[in-house]
Every structure is written in C-alpha cells, then in structure tokens.
Amino acid sequence: MKITAEQLTIREAQEADVPALAAIYAADDVGAHGDTTDPSALGDYTKAFNAIASSPNESLYVVELEGEIVGTFQTVILTKLVGRGSVSMAIEAVQTRSDMRGQGIGAIMVGYCIDKAKRLNIGTVQLVSNVARLDAHRFYERLGFERRHLGFRMKLK
Predict the structure, then answer these.
(1) Which of 29, 43, 70, 78 is deepest in the core (most CB within 10 A)?
(2) So what's the pLDDT on residue 32?
(3) Quick one: which H or E segment has residue 126?
(4) Is the pLDDT of residue 34 over 90?
(5) Three-state SS at 144
(6) Residues sharing a CB contact under 8 Å with residue 93, sequence separation 6 or more, in sequence order
C-alpha cells in the first residue's frame, strides 16, 4: 500500500521528538553510526538537536502518519564560493521507520526537499548514501539523482 503526501505531516522536529528519532536511527543496521535507544545517550542527541535547531542553514524534519513519527530527514543549505557563489541543498539522514519502508514515504520526503530547494531558488540538491545501500542507490536514481562524485571520509574519533 502506497502512502500519499496528503496522509503525512512533515514538520520541523521538536526536542520532544528526539527519542523517536534516535529509535529510528538505532534500528538502522547498515549505517553503523553507533545510534542507540539507551537513555544514557539522550544527552548527546539533545545536544546535537539544539545545535541543528539554532543553525540558520540546517533543518531537521519529522514525518508523521496519524500522529506517529514514521520518518525523518535533515537539510543543510551550503553557499560556496565556487560556481560564482552557488548555493546547494544537502539532504542528510533520510530514514523511514523500518516497519513503514516500501510505502512511498522516502519519495515524499525527498520530494519535499526538492520542492523546498526550488522555492528557495537553489540550483543543486545533493545527498550521499552509504556504499552498502544498493537499494537506496536505485531509489535515488529512480527519483532523478545522478552518481556524480566519489566521497571520502576520515573518522577522527
């Protein structure tokens, strides 16, 4: 069964949403980000939430279906000197609750980001995806994204 955009509420996250978001991240067995529902980690999540909430260029969203959080994503607006001051939107941490996957929520979330970027007259929308997420890669390509760059990462702690 596909869910429609009209059935969902997309809104900016609130601090009270942090435990539900941590649970969505913790259920991700591919990301290996060390996310957990352990109550002792709530302070780390809350600190990160407050940093995002206070940033003028970052937004963290929740997606609700019938009052329950079923997805989340984050956007970051990047202004660069390259490209004569080009502006792009990075889409980060696109996650659908595991029991809700395959119902169209991810496409609605990404579509929301693209629409927002168009309203803001942003020229490029970009995202990165874990190399192991082959289904996600096919999903993003179906939505019109192209593989354009090779990413690198260095863990410092």
Answers:
(1) 70
(2) 57
(3) strand 124-127
(4) no
(5) coil
(6) 25, 72, 73, 74
Are 22 and 36 spatial neighbours (Cβ–Cβ below 8 Å)? yes
Q: What percent of the chain has pLDDT over 90?
A: 69
Could you give the angle at which helices 18-26 and 42-54 cross, rounded to 10 degrees? 110
> Helices in 5-154 by DSSP H: which ranges?
18-26, 42-54, 82-85, 105-119, 134-142
Domains of the chain, CATH where assigned: 12-142 (3.40.630.30)
The closest alpha carbon to 70, from 62, 78, 60, belongs to 62
pTM: 0.90
d(CA 15, CA 4) in angstroms, rounded, equals 26
For 37-65, give the DSSP string.
--GGGHHHHHHHHHHHHH-TTEEEEEEEE
Q: Phi and psi dihedrals of 96, rounded to 5?
A: -110, 140
Residue 43: Cβ within 10 Å count: 9
The pLDDT of residue 132: 79
Contact predicate 97/71, CB 8 Å: yes
- b/e per residue 71-87 (b: at least 16 CB within 10 A): bbbbbebeeeeeeeeee
